[in-house]
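Re: weekly structure request thread

Next one in the queue (33 aa):
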Amino acid sequence: DITQVTISISRKTTTGTMMLSRNPVTIISATKI
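Done, posted below.
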């Protein structure tokens, strides 16, 4: 099971709204059978 989460932060600037994208976080969970 692999889950990738992308977090972006919107910040108000003088020219409008700027979207700041952070580094994508990859979460890998494995179950031993």
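The radius of gyration is 16 Å. The chain has a mean pLDDT of 70.
Next request, please.
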